[in-house]
Amino acid sequence: MYPNLSEAATALDLAPLEAELSPGALVTEPDVVAAHSTDRALFCAVGTARGLVRAVTVEDVQATLRFAHEHRVPVVPQGARTGLSGAANAVDGALLLSVAKLDRVLEVDTVEMTCTVEPGILNQDLKDHLKSFRLAYPPDPGSVAISTIGGNVATNAGGLCCVKYGVTRDYVRSLTVVLADGRITTVGRPTAKGVAGFDLSQLFIGSEGSLGVIVGITLELVPELPEAITAIALFPDVVSASGAVTDFMATGARPSLLEFLDRQSLRMLNAYGDFGLPADSGAMLLAQSNGDGSPEAAVRELESFTEVARACGADEVMFSDDPNDSDLLIAARRAVSPAAEKYAMAHGGGELIDDVCVPRGRLREFFARVVEIGERHQDIVVSTAGHAGDGNMHPTVFFDASDPGSVARAQQVFDEIMAAGLELGGTITGEHGVGYLKREWLARELDPVSRELHMSVKRALDPHGILNPGKMLAAL
Amino acid sequence: MYPNLSEAATALDLAPLEAELSPGALVTEPDVVAAHSTDRALFCAVGTARGLVRAVTVEDVQATLRFAHEHRVPVVPQGARTGLSGAANAVDGALLLSVAKLDRVLEVDTVEMTCTVEPGILNQDLKDHLKSFRLAYPPDPGSVAISTIGGNVATNAGGLCCVKYGVTRDYVRSLTVVLADGRITTVGRPTAKGVAGFDLSQLFIGSEGSLGVIVGITLELVPELPEAITAIALFPDVVSASGAVTDFMATGARPSLLEFLDRQSLRMLNAYGDFGLPADSGAMLLAQSNGDGSPEAAVRELESFTEVARACGADEVMFSDDPNDSDLLIAARRAVSPAAEKYAMAHGGGELIDDVCVPRGRLREFFARVVEIGERHQDIVVSTAGHAGDGNMHPTVFFDASDPGSVARAQQVFDEIMAAGLELGGTITGEHGVGYLKREWLARELDPVSRELHMSVKRALDPHGILNPGKMLAAL
């Protein structure tokens, strides 16, 4: 579908674009452009962009897309570039289009319980802003402190809260979007309920910059979340721990958090900081309940968790209603990513993060497969942490990036884990997205008609294929 | 966009289609076809269909669409034909394609808390089936006892539960869909979280048969809902009652039900049956809370409701934790529709049901407008009931269907109410859909680019425009 866009546009004069943009919005200095050419994914291709537009107005976004559409220039939409799949990486000849500077809160409506924001606001900044209104925006990806709401919407970001509170999609009421040719529209619904036409906002959520550029977002909010109490359960191995997840969720439990850490994750965390974690354990579950505001219900829910965990072979289960303990444990969970980075740096630098989600009833089988795959590749270290309550696991493959053999074996392990996820009725990506990293795998997950349908929609919305080519849809 | 499909296909021989279908699936007897040519909307055009396919297999659906696609025959997908906007009405030369006989529950997964069903199962039958698993599927449109899950998905049906539990869309995990040309695919996600490609299931939800025919549905379920307690509040007028809704919801309340009945609705109900309703009152609010399983929290929430209602001018507020009282009140609320029909029959037969949804903060203004519109048209009676907690109101216009002047004035009132909804930042349809009834109004609600975008998507998925032409998209 995609012609060689970069060649066609090589000789392109950007002056007419610059004249339409806010002063200083267009940057072509190669070092600045290069510094904006990657997200946080490892081992993804990075092309050479021809320029960076730092939009300071919605009109800048429109002008950039009108120009790109007319001249068939690829456009890579960018927020904070914290993604883990290469979706924001430069492609050759592209204009990088950053909306990070569009970062205002435009409205908080305390009666309708919505807010309208620009895409560049950081998730945590929005959360902080909402506190004074006693409102909350639950989605909390690992990148909560550094990723933008626009990026969260574009990737349908998840996080720790999802097991009870759902994902980004569940909070989007409407979107203002600039289309591939620069036209602008608002899609979604204005009210709590609404069925006037298709809900086209849904198309853009999770589209990773391939269908349009999000410039305005109205989010549904909830009253501030009740305090939660915390339990941890230690298990001899990952299979028994994952079984406890399956069995606990099958009781109809709605914990506000249910996270999983394997032995290797615990070791990396203990090497990274003092979180009061056990020195050594086969696997740990971290559960929280807020009882929907009823402390008694929260206690009952975690008592049920305790019972299930023990029945599944937990060595130890501990409770706490001290918010400090909870904060420390959440901090530990959130430190898995930097702890893994530190570990990788000390062990050859290679790190590939899987993001498989399987039906909760298949978690035991999934972990048995991960263990088996790890045992077949003794020189490769695999650690697994994840959002157990959703069945969303992040097996992470560590390897020596300087050794081509190690790289190849790591890639094989990474792929085998995804294949196991698919075989168990799961998905290759629960929350990190497809991007560049999993574009071949998307073609494996989708059936042939779904692949065609994806491309029909893509052609309808982006007939010249300028939006983020070579990524999510490239192998369909 | 649409050629005159019926003319092109007038001489069409249906024998090759019949040969591909299950025995007896194709019916062409004019009286049978005519009996299947309308839904429950009033005053919508009804064309003459050339046949009715009662699919008993998914292959029947595929064969019908392959044939229709090849021969450019319009297809009108149908479930139980309980819609209120004419979306299931016949168009000239069409094949009516009913999936009502595809009504099995294929799977209930108690660990993943999902079920997979065929589209023709009735909503209430599914609810009953799930009881033995102690699971619930919350969406409960007024038509819960007679409408199909497939129809609920195709219209993104709402209901009484939405104020706390959301709409049909919120429960759809994946859909199996037959496309306009007969190809079949499954869209959506297999797991609690999933971001592999676009979530194309979202396109089909609420598309009213214009993009594909839904033949399989995987729904997310919740644990059986806790018992609720009930309060009713009586007000001197609709503006004070609607103000109480605004103010109560602004406290962050999450009632499991918050319904509104005006004086005329109460009168019609009292004439219809004995529900123990007040003999006369300006307006009544009906609130329920289940406290998310905590009886204390439920009581606290309804105490807060009482306080707000009194502050807004309620004459009387009554509580009950007797399930019989609750059942009777819910039965009363559900009887509004037949009670209105009975009233209409006795008063000239004309009835047009609006379905405006406004932001909750604009309810006072909306009701002031409805009152003002009613006062300007003294020969037209307007009653209003609705899902107040969502801002979703059903002003219903009664008129003498035999008097062209009355019909014209009723249409004007109906339109003025929709216009008021739009002016207040609302939508022309909160849950009933566009269909034939509001196709002109959809064009007014959507901005020009959104209209173009709708048509781009339509052309991409249904290039020959055979799916339910002349309805939702006809005026875009």
From TrEMBL, chains A, B:
The UniProt entry, under PROSITE patterns, shows: FAD_PCMH
Required co-factor(s) are: FAD
Question: What's in the keyword line of the UniProt record?
Answer: FAD, Flavoprotein, Oxidoreductase
Instruction: Spell out the Gene3D superfamilies in the cross-references.
Output: 3.30.465.10, 3.30.70.2740, Vanillyl-alcohol Oxidase, Chain A, domain 4
The record's annotation in InterPro entries points to: FAD-bd_oxidored_4_C (IPR004113), FAD-bd_PCMH (IPR016166), FAD-bd_PCMH-like_sf (IPR036318), FAD-bd_PCMH_sub2 (IPR016169), FAD-linked_Oxase-like_C (IPR016164), FAD-linked_OxidoTrans_Type4 (IPR051914), Oxid_FAD_bind_N (IPR006094), Vanillyl_alc_oxidase_C-sub2 (IPR016171)
Q: Where is the FAD-binding PCMH-type domain?
A: 45-224
Q: What is this protein called?
A: FAD-linked oxidase C-terminal domain-containing protein
The organism that produces this protein has a lineage beginning with: Bacteria, Bacillati, Actinomycetota, Actinomycetes, Micrococcales
